[in-house]
């Protein structure tokens, strides 16, 4: 009886292994053809490419709240020091900011000051996907393979791969990242639906796991002797003004991580200044917000003064 089942078991294992290998080949093959393997891969590669030759005395890292509100060229003129903006998106979280700073330092950059600007509700969000973390970090070997397996070998990825293949052989090549780089960041689209602006942020939604990478950023800044300052990203005025309790709780967490905090609340975006998301400044207002943030920095820090604790 046992012998009669061996061929069946062998056939089953070979078939299962073949299906897994074929699935992996489809998933990775479509990535090689242009299917993005990272969320917002275009902006990630755009920012990483800056590290090859650029040098900066002042460095901004963070997400789209930063990318849409700070013009690095204007900040360079205002401060008199070369400034670089390496904004990613909220999908990369604090983890993306940490590894972007690590990569900048590894590329030989030695900024005097680093500004970390994250969207105001970042503390409420889930940790980033493990495969994404493996892609942006220096994970190697089995750790990278395990992260890839957990994240890529699933029905959603396989479905996405087959969708890509279908589009690939249609009239035009698929474009899953439908945006251009304009004014040093992702081009904005239609203005945010005002009905979708939340009334307030809730301290009860803060994710207890989120401060871990804030602490990593603070530790890295300390070990490198770099002044690092946390800035709440701009936020739509209704939400901004109604979230005092949330920001009190968030500020305690940020300060406890070891980071300096510029201001206990974000700069509020009026309805007229709002872009395509609740934390995006309209493109026409980017320079105005850059100047306002620089003035706030000067008022708070002063020329050569100590950063706030």
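Sequence proposed for the structure above (309 residues):
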């Amino acid at each position: 009886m046992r012998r009669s089942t061996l061929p069946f078991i062998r056939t089953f294992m070979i078939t299962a292994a073949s299906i897994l290998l074929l699935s992996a080949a489809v998933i990775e093959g479509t990535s090689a053809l242009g299917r993005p393997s990272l969320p917002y891969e275009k902006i990630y590669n755009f920012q990483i490419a800056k590290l090859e030759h650029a040098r900066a005395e002042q460095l901004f890292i963070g997400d789209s709240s930063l990318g849409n509100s700070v013009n690095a060229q204007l900040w360079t003129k205002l401060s008199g020091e070369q400034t670089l903006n390496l904004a990613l998106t909220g999908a990369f979280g604090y983890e993306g900011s940490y590894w972007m700073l690590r990569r900048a330092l590894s590329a030989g950059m030695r900024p005097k000051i680093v500004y970390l600007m994250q969207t105001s509700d970042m503390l409420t969000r889930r940790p980033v996907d493990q495969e994404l973390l493996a892609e942006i970090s220096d994970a190697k070997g089995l750790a990278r393979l395990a992260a890839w397996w957990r994240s890529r070998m699933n029905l959603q990825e396989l479905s996405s791969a087959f969708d890509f293949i279908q589009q690939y052989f249609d009239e035009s090549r698929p474009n899953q990242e439908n945006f251009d780089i304009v004014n040093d960041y992702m081009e904005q689209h239609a203005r945010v639906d005002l009905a979708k602006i939340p009334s307030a942020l809730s301290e009860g939604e803060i994710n207890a796991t989120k401060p871990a990478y804030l602490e990593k950023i603070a530790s890295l800044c300390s070990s490198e002797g770099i002044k690092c300052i946390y800035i709440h990203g701009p936020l739509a005025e209704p939400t901004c003004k109604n979230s005092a309790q949330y920001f009190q709780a968030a500020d305690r967490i940020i300060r406890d991580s070891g980071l300096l905090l510029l201001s206990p609340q974000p700069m509020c975006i009026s309805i007229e200044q709002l872009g395509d998301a609740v934390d995006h400044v309209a493109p026409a207002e980017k320079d105005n917000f850059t100047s306002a943030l620089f003035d706030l920095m000067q008022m708070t820090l002063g020329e050569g003064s100590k950063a706030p604790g």
